[in-house]
Amino acid sequence: MKNFELSVLDLAPVKQEKTIHDTFQDSLSLANYVENLNYKRFWLAEHHNMASIASSATSVLIGFIANGTKRIRVGSGGIMLPNHSSLVIAEQFGTLESLFPGRIDLGLGRAPGTDGLTAQALGRNPAIINEQFPRQILELQRYFSKENSESLVRAIPGEGLDIPLYILGSSTDSAWLAAELGLPYAFAGHFAPEQMEMAFNIYREHFEPSKQLDAPYIMACVNGIAAETSEEAHWLSTTLFQAFINIVRNDRKPFAPPVEDMDEIWSPMEKSAVLQKLRYSFIGSQPEIEEKLKNFQEKFNVDELIINSHIYDHQKRLDSYRIFREAANSLFKA
Description:
The protein is an alpha/beta fold. The chain has a single domain, classed as TIM Barrel (Alpha-Beta Barrel), CATH 3.20.20.30. It is built from 12 helices and 9 strands. It has helices at about 20-35, 60-65, 85-100, 115-120, 130-145, 175-180, 195-205, 230-235, 240-250, 270-275, 285-300, 315-334; strands at about 5-10, 40-45, 75-80, 105-110, 165-170, 185, 220-225, 280-285, 305-310. The chain has an 8-stranded parallel β-barrel, surrounded by 7 helices. Helix 2 links the parallel strand 2 and strand 3. Helix 1 (about 20-35) packs parallel to helix 12 (about 315-334). The chain is globular, with a radius of gyration of 19 Å. It starts with a strand and ends with a helix. To bacterial alkanal monooxygenase alpha and beta chains. It comes from Chryseobacterium defluvii. It holds the Pfam family Bac_luciferase. This is Luciferase-like monooxygenase.
């Protein structure tokens, strides 16, 4: 079992009785806190038309977080590339990298990050996504290259900058692509765990070295809710469970505070569906988290674990990331 890095996925969660301004201030507070805990990176994810998630203008929010921190890498987990022109994303991230040299990541996904109607409003063409996404990644690499200075279309800023690309996926499709292009691969185990093991195997077995990466680099995103006691952690986790029930019911309202009894909210069928989707959720006290980290790493042997934490109380959320860091440190020492 090898050591692994710890990082953060922040969806800029909007909470009941809070404003979006409050959400952004909490995100910055979290970024500062985990920076001091030596987390490796802080990623924000593009979503649209969701009252519970405020990270739709992902590049703008990355700039806000990067400006308020000093060392931690900040980036997208991810930009849903077929929603955008490759040139616009190259310019946006070229601007970010020019403002915050050596700290910007560009994680890329092909999903819309929303519902079908909103995807249409974003100008996506679902008939060509599987062809468009790989082509757009190659376009980004060209725009960022020094060689593109002779092209009639250039990304200014962006050209000649070292902006690492990451491929995100929730199925095996992107595993094949990340392996072919020789790019780091991050899997969305926090909401789509079914194909994670298969995707990692495909990526490792078919990886081709590239200019960016000479060996596979695997990142797994999981849900993490840690507290001083197991009972408190499971109580806090009811915010996460309610969020997923809202997804099942297509109810996109802001995140709710914890409840005492989830059985008063979900049906047995909904409970089964939610727990299946959340199978890679690490919930518990520090000793429990340490054991779960150990078991997960023995199975998957990842290079980096990205923690997504849906906790209603901001201080409890900070505490959870501290407990994860302490659990990982203890595990490494062992």
